[in-house]
Each structure stands twice: as C-alpha cells, then as structure tokens.
Amino acid sequence: xxxxxxxxxxxxxxxxxxxxxxxxxxxxxxxxxxxxxxxxxxxxxxxxxxxxxxxxxxxxxxxxxxxxxxxxxxxxxxxxxxxxxxxxxxxxxxxxxxxxxxxxxxxxxxxxxxxxxxxxxxxxxxxxxxxxxxxxxxxxxxxxxxxxxxxxxxxxxxxxxxxxxxxxxxxxxxxxxxxxxxxxxxxxxxxxxxxxxxxxxxxxxxxxxxxxxxxxxxxxxxxxxxxxxxxxxxxxxxxxxxxxxxxxxxxxxxxxxxxxxxxxxxxxxxxxxxxxxxxxxxxxxxxxxxxxxxxxxxxxxxxxx
Amino acid sequence: xxxxxxxxxxxxxxxxxxxxxxxxxxxxxxxxxxxxxxxxxxxxxxxxxxxxxxxxxxxxxxxxxxxxxxxxxxxxxxxxxxxxxxxxxxxxxxxxxxxxxxxxxxxxxxxxxxxxxxxxxxxxxxxxxxxxxxxxxxxxxxxxxxxxxxxxxxxxxxxxxxxxxxxxxxxxxxxxxxxxxxxxxxxxxxxxxxxxxxxxxxxxxxxxxxxxxxxxxxxxxxxxxxxxxxxxxxxxxxxxxxxxxxxxxxxxxxxxxxxxxxxxxxxxxxxxxxxxxxxxxxxxxxxxxxxxxxxxxxxx
Lengths: 305, 300
Known about the structure:
The complex is a heterodimer. By secondary structure, chain A is mainly α. Chain A has a domain at about 85-265: MetI-like fold. In chain A, about 70% of the residues lie in helices and about 0% in strands. Chain A has 15 helices and no strands. Chain B is mainly alpha-helical. The radius of gyration of chain B is 24 Å and the shape is globular.
C-alpha cells in the first residue's frame, strides 16, 4: 500500500475524465444484477411500512385471511381516529411533545453548544484530555447509572415527572458535544480573533458569531435530539408510571397490553398498526424535509480530524 | 475586559475554557462519576428501596455465579447476540454503502430508503415486526405457506428468536451505513486509478483499497455495535420480552428485571458493574488488536 498516494486527495469527478468505452456484455450483466439487488433490498426495507399502513386500513376479517390482502377494499379509514381515541393518545402526544421532546431538545442543544465551544474555540491546558474523557463516557453503560440515579430521583420526588430525563440533559450530551465541536473547528479562527480585538466576550462570540454560522450543525443536532426523545421508551418506562403522563411509546405498548390480556377485542392489529403509523408519521415528515441535512450530519460523526 | 491585562493570557483562557465546559464537567461528576461509585457500593449490599441497604459483601456476585440458574443462560444469550449482531450489522451496513457508492441512478432515493428504519421509534419497529413474523397470520409466513413452504416460528421458537432479533437489528443499521458511505466517498480516486493501471479488477480494488481505507471507520462502527449490543434493551424487551423460555433474556433485560421487577437494586448494581467492566475490556482489546488490521493511511 502506497501511503504517499492518499495524501494527494484528488477527489475529482468519478472517473469520467477517462475515455468512455462501449459497454461490454459482462458490464451489462453486472449492471442488471446490481439493480436487481438494489430493488430487492429496497422492497425489503419498504415492505414493513407498506404492510403497517395497509393493515391499519383493514378489519379483522381482512387481517386473519390467507392469502394476504395487499390492497384492503373496502378500506377502513375510520381505524385511524378510532384507534387514536381508544386511549388518550392526544394526551400522550402532548406529553411527548411539551413535557419531554421540546424542552429536552432546547436544553441539550444549548448546553452542548456551550461545552463544544469550550472544547474547540478556546486554547487551554488539559482541553483535549478532558475532551477525550468526555468521549470515553459514551462507553459507560446506561445501566450503571440507571439504578443510583433512580434512587436519587426518588429521594427528590421526581418520579412520575420528566425532570429525571430533562435535568441531566441540561449538562450537555457527549455525542452532540462531539458533533458540534467538529463543526465549530471548521469555522476560521480569524472571525473570533477579530471579534476579540473589538472587545467581544467569549459568550458574545459564541452567541453572535458561532451559533448563526453553525445553523446546519445545530439543525442536525436538534433533529437528532428531538427524534431521540420522541422515540425514547426506556427513559419514560423507568420514571413515568402515571398513565396521564405517558408518552406515545408507552401508550402504544399499553394499547398492545390491552389486546394481549383480552384477545376478544376486535381490530387489535389494525388499531396497533394505525397508531404505529400515526406515531411514525412526524418522523417521516421530518425526514422528508430534512433528509440531506440529516444524512450529512450523521456523516460528520465518522472519525474525521 | 480588563481582566486580560491583569492575568496572563493562558491562565485567563484556562478559566474561560473550564467555564464553558463546566456544564459537562459538573454533569460528568453528578450523572457519571457519582452513579459509578454509588452503584459500586450498592453492588455489595442488599437493597429493595423499602428498607435501608445492608452490607452483604460479595453476596450478590456469589449468588449470580453459583446460585442463580438464569444467569448462565443470560450470559450465553448475550454473547450469542452481541458476537453476531455487531459484526453482521457492520458487514451489512458496509455492503449496502459499497453498493450505493457504485455508479447508480437515484442514489439519494435508495440511500433514504435504507437509512430510514434507523430513526423509526423502536416501539413501532417492534409492533410491525412482531406482526410480520407472526406464525399464524404474519405476512412472511402467509407468503411462505402460499409457496408451499413450512411455517417458520421466528419469534416463538427458542432457537430462532435470537436470529430473528438480529435480523431486525440489521434492518435498522442506517446510521452505520451513512457513515460508511461518507467514508467511501472520501477514498482518493487516485488510488483506484493507480490500481487500474496495474491491471487490478473490481474485486482487487475492493479488497486491497476500499476495505483497508475504511478500516478506521469499521473499527468505530464495530465498537459502537458491541457497546450497543451489550446494553441492548428496548428491541428485545418489546419484541420478545425475553421469551420464549428465556432464549432472548439478554443482559440488559435481566438487569432491568432485577432492578425494577424484583426490586433487587444491589444485585442489579453488581450486574451493571460487571457489564461496565466487560464493555471497557472489550473496547480495549479491540483497540489493541486494531494496530494489526486498521490502516491509518496518509491521514497525518
């Protein structure tokens, strides 16, 4: 392996500069095989979602039948409101949004940005050592913290509230600190130096220069934080026991439990699939509009200096 | 700021730096260091949240290794799951990224489809796959019956439950795939061109350039996969709940059960500490062996 070559980094257009040869038969076959594999994989990935939505529109007779029905007719669109209202899902959604996901996203992004600034834009002794320590904490399993933290929060009477999930998030999350630090490092140092000469404080620089320039990174981190909270199951499972405070994930599971305990209730699967569809819908919408931001953001986590 | 004139620059910067990272530093002491020390202490006690904890020395550890009939099974399940799911997740994510990195039409479309399951709530993943893999009226078994094939008890047979969970896990490896794809796109074109001049075919290029250039990221994703695997809870908890006959009772599930179902906080702490040590050791070993197979090319 010639290490010299890789330093040149000539990431040009994909081989188009070379002369085009006419396609050979072998290339045609390879191309067909490639697209066959791609399409087969794509079908495997989409099928579960298609099945979820189409089953949400069925009644029991259409679910428990062989061969399976691909296009339910008639389609029972009422399953969506009926399933949603079979438990207080509107309440669960409000809890998920306003008691958990929104406050969690705000505090975790803000605190991570402040910490990331300290880890990237100020030169100080031990900075990198502490940063590696911060990364290393990602190795500490959640389960080690789970038991002692539960005891602390119980003593503080925070059980059945979202404080145990939001207060620790006010101290930054290593993953987001890492992503924001990587981004902050790409912003030229001259910008902050110029501001310092004009008498700006470090906090001014963070607030007025870094954050506005980091909008793409902040968007990714906010989306990931929001989706993380929206999808979280274990956190609420441990701390939120009161049904009136349930989040959507706990609500779906509670709906399933009513069906497992009483197998005579009609429309178990259609209702579960309808609620699942509605829970995943906001994620689909966020992903549809933010796909590029998203994928580029996650690429940032690849170990790049 | 007058302070900059009274104190030397480096000392001022040290204080400023510490000030900015202080949220994390305080959080680290409160939510990581304290729980670590405290659960180490509790691991030597018996504690049910109702009465005060009392010291039982190595009681919990001795119980786990000599009396607890479930624990050996939990270890076996976890090793099976982790040693398969992490490498298989990395391999499938890598192959899909490599496929997407070839010249194809509609790459963003396929990339979006392969990535999407990674951000779907686990509760939804669990509900949908449980339904799809159902023995009596799941889509997959209905289709197989239609083809005259036997019914496969994916989630209801102890032998197949773990492989089925691993399959669902692999389906949601979009994060790793996207990281691989970004790495593949950064492999310098010049390497391939030089290899082509030397008469290398597609396989040679993949084996001697693509894979070595990606080894740092393979290591990263593998470590993340192992850490995730050892701790995994939500997917197995919601899909199989540890069954059938404890065949998917993974470490995370058993730990949760001891803490919050059996209220054995001391025993759960002992389990948590052993998990911590296993993860650190595993990561350390992977890093040590990595010198032999990870290629840090002309990076620096």
